[in-house]
Write a structure and sequence with these properties.
The chain is an alpha/beta fold. Helix content is about 35%, strand content about 20%. Strand 13 (about 400-410) and strand 14 (about 415-420) form a beta hairpin. It starts with 5 loop residues before the first helix and ends in an 8-residue tail after the last helix.
Length: about 475
């Protein structure tokens, strides 16, 4: 047996040293993004990070993120990516600071959200696409985007975000969001599965879609039945709204700047009867609303006679436009003068809304990805009627049997909503009394739903 040379003996030690150095460098990248404390924030025991991930080095295109570790035992909790819709609305301002994040701005201070989703998971909020919120590009043409570009950028973001936070690479990963995220999330998940065939990076377990746009005609045309069943329109107007000009036709004409006389007449009648004094995103809510609902208005063109009365000062907008807050977040304004809930500079291909994503959802289920579609039942913009129908038809197409029959679920001692599960992998649920932005309007019930989703369990059957 020949003795090993010095070089042969030294090689393993050298490799180990290089790996150790690489891990240390990668881990230290996140330290640059660590938030010491947000202005007006009380003491908390969990860590927060925010900053930029460049998704295009040549054009200097960068996406802004806000990451909140789980409140308790973050090492054992999954990673959840949250995306708001629009297209073009902020996951930071809407999702994190108005819906399910740990804080809500109130004057000069931040107050704790008792039902924050970081009680159950490590929450990652992404301002996407480029041109939304603090996300930016040095090339003005980069704010002209579509679904395909958005999905690709989001994929690159996650790849590079894991370089900052390598400890999360093998963590169970879920993607959640609402509204136009019904396009963002399935398209991103599809790319992640394709990427994993070359290199296993994403440990994707499931997606949850809240009041999502999944199939243009079904989702939009269910608005007529919702209006009629809730007493917002008359029988005669319902008949016109389902025969002479349905809502998907009107939106399609609106986006093409070619609204026909008949559609204009029908929408005027619908607008008169539903009234501008009823909030379409929560038909039980009075009209004084926060701009948390801005993301809904992008996908729902204003009807002819409709105006929105925003009579509540938006605390989030004021807070995120403070210089001390932007400094604490490591954020900057590029190409805009102020931070807005929904982007004024983004040029999104709005006709992409007509591309169905329900078939992509089906392919995810086939790949073993758990899917939950949930609906705030007071939303008339993307009503539960269409979402429930789409999920049921998808289950039938995939040959999935009902494993949890349609039933109520509970939060505390109250009915939280209704649910049905197919094949223990595809679920539908409503959140009773919730709006388009369910975690904003029904935070406690939304947290119960979120926890059940992460655990892969049916929603509670008893109080």
């Amino acid at each position: 047996m020949f003795p090993l040379s010095w070089k042969a003996m030294a090689m393993p030690a050298l490799v180990l040293l290089q790996l150790f150095f690489l891990i240390k460098v990668e881990s230290s990248l996140s330290l640059f993004d660590k938030i010491t404390q947000l202005p007006g924030q009380c003491f908390v025991g969990f860590q927060q990070f925010s900053g930029y991930v460049t998704v295009d080095d040549k054009k200097q295109r960068a996406l802004f993120y806000y990451f909140v570790e789980a409140e308790f035992d973050p090492v054992s909790k999954p990673l959840v990516l949250w995306l708001n819709g629009g297209p073009g609305c902020s996951s930071l301002g809407v999702g994190a600071f108005s819906e399910n994040g740990p804080f809500r701005p109130k004057g000069q201070f931040l107050i704790r959200n008792e039902y924050s989703w970081n009680k159950e998971a490590n929450m990652l909020y992404l301002e996407t696409p480029i041109g939304v919120g603090f996300s930016y590009s040095s090339d003005s043409s980069s704010v002209t985007v579509n679904d395909e570009i958005t999905a690709r950028d989001n994929l690159v973001f996650l790849q590079r975000w894991f370089l900052k936070f390598p400890e999360y690479r093998k963590r169970d990963l879920f993607i959640t969001g609402e509204s136009y995220a019904g396009h963002y999330i399935p398209q991103l998940a599809k790319l992640m599965i394709q990427f994993n065939k070359k290199e296993k990076l994403f440990n994707l377990k499931g997606i949850a879609l809240g009041n999502p746009v999944l199939e243009f005609a079904t989702d939009f045309n269910s608005r007529a039945e919702f209006f009629w069943s809730h007493g917002l329109i008359s029988d005669s107007t319902y008949k016109m709204f389902t025969s002479a000009c349905n809502y998907s036709r009107y939106v399609s004409e609106y986006y093409r700047d070619s609204v026909s006389t008949v559609c204009s007449r029908v929408m005027s009648q619908v607008g008169r009867e539903t009234s501008r004094f009823v909030d379409k995103y929560d038909v039980t809510l009075d009209v004084c609303i926060s701009s948390v609902f801005s993301q809904s208005k992008i996908i729902s063109p204003q009807e002819v006679s409709e105006t929105i009365d925003v009579c509540v000062e938006d605390e989030t907008v004021n807070y995120l436009n403070r210089q001390d807050v932007q400094k604490a977040l490591h954020a900057q304004l590029v190409g805009v003068r102020r931070w807005d809930v929904c982007s004024n500079i983004l040029d999104y291909e709005l006709l992409d809304v007509e591309i169905p994503t329900i078939s992509i959802v089906g392919s995810l289920v086939k790949a073993g990805i758990s899917v939950l579609v949930y609906s705030g039942d007071q939303d008339s913009v993307i009503p539960l009627i269409g979402s429930r129908k789409l999920v049921h038809e998808l289950a039938k197409e995939l040959g999935l049997n009902t494993t949890v029959p349609y039933r109520v679920w509970f939060e505390g001692q109250q009915v939280g909503g209704w649910t049905q599960v197919y094949g223990n992998i595809l679920s539908f649920a409503t959140i009773r009394g919730a709006s388009h932005e369910a975690p904003f309007s029904q935070p406690e019930r939304s947290l119960v739903l979120f926890k059940s989703f992460l655990q892969g369990r049916p929603l509670p059957e008893v109080f």
